[in-house]
Design a protein that fits this description.
The protein is of the alpha+beta class. It has helices spanning 2-25, 42-45, 47-77, 84-115, 133-150, 156-168, 171-180, 234-241, and strands at residues 201-203, 220-225, 243-247, 267-271, 283-285, 290-292, 299-301, 307-310, 322-324, 330-332.
């Protein structure tokens, strides 16, 4: 065994010597390679290209100005109406114009920096945080040099374009905020919906009333109040009144005594508005009876009072008490017993 091991030991020793010689050959430090050779851009050597780049930047700032003006026009001329089509048109007009206002400034700033501003790489040694007077004066000189390199002082049209675009862009935020001053801040309206005693449950969006006999175990219905479109501001009212209704085996229901009569033969109805931030919950899993909010994954147990079993929601979904009328149609016994949706200052729970 010793004769077989000897060559391995000598080999290891020879290898170690080779490594030592390699380490000795390495320099104590690497030389700084310095900055790569500066390559001039087309705008640096061609006055026509320089002027063309300036016009392009001005055009982008002008696009931003057009977007801001378009946003103001859309805000006042195309308010969201009572129909889905009018709301869609208003949102599209506001969204596109806001995109142009913000994109124009961003694209112009990037193009300006890449084509017109100085692109020389500079190095500066690290110094104590507070420099002496001479160093501070040198820094100011560097800033003045950078301003000179940017050409902002001698490019009058460009200067006017950037000032106009940057000055007008905040109007896309300020005008809607100012428009809300004096608006309807009555949050108590969230305490009540269109549901009332005797109001039939109808399919969303057809508005067809629902018979209890048509709701099979495991089925899910998206529900709105009957004759919803006859109400004033029906879109806003729908946003508060939407309900998700399911039917399960009555033996699977865990109902507290005070809510024993709120369901009908295994059919339960709960607000569709998540109690976290108000997203619509609509993903129902039949085997577990769990209802999932797609926004932040809050999960509610429909068989146990829609209690939260997972996620950031802090309260169960409000339950709509239901029964049937003489014709077998599902109807509401009353409105929700608590405000729907997320928390707000005035609500008690």
């Amino acid at each position: 065994m010793s004769h077989e091991q000897t060559p391995q030991i000598h080999g290891a020793t020879a290898g170690g010597q080779d490594l030592d010689r390699a380490d000795a050959a390495l320099p104590a430090r690497f030389e700084d390679p310095g900055l790569p050779e500066h390559r001039l851009r087309q705008a640096d050597i061609d006055p026509a290209a320089d002027k063309r780049a300036e016009r392009q930047v001005v055009a982008m700032f002008a696009l931003s100005v057009i977007g801001t003006v378009g946003f103001l026009i859309a805000y006042f001329a195309l308010p969201p109406g009572e129909t889905v089509a009018s709301m869609r048109l208003s949102n599209i007009a506001l969204g596109l114009s806001l995109f142009l206002a913000m994109f124009g400034i961003g694209a112009a700033a990037v193009h300006w920096a890449k084509t017109l501003m100085s692109d020389h790489e500079r190095q500066e040694a690290r110094h104590p945080q507070r420099s002496d007077a001479a160093t501070r004066e040198a820094a100011l000189a560097t800033l003045r040099e950078g301003a000179e390199d940017s050409g902002i002082g001698r490019r009058g049209v460009l200067k006017g374009a950037v000032v106009s675009a940057v000055a007008l862009a905040p109007l896309t935020v300020a005008v809607p905020l100012i428009g809300e001053v004096g608006g309807d801040w009555n949050v108590s309206k969230f305490r009540h919906t269109l549901w009332e005693r005797g109001k039939r449950l109808a399919r969303d969006p057809s508005g067809e009333p629902i018979r209890a006999a048509d709701v099979t175990i495991g089925s899910v219905f998206h529900v709105i109040p009957e004759n919803l479109r006859e109400a004033d501001h029906w879109i806003e009212e729908k946003a508060k009144a939407v309900v998700l209704m399911v039917r399960m085996d009555p033996r699977d229901l865990k109902e507290p005594t005070e809510r024993a009569g709120w369901s009908y033969d295994g059919i339960v109805a709960y607000s569709k508005i998540c109690t976290h931030v108000g997203c619509p919950v609509a993903l129902y899993e039949q085997q577990t009876h769990h209802l999932l909010c797609p926004c932040h994954q809050s999960t509610f147990d429909m068989s146990d009072g829609a209690k939260v079993v997972f996620g950031p929601a802090s309260r169960p979904l409000p339950q709509l008490p239901i029964t049937v009328d003489d014709e077998g149609y599902l109807i509401a016994q009353d409105d929700f017993d608590e405000p729907i949706g997320p928390s707000y200052w005035e609500r008690l729970r």
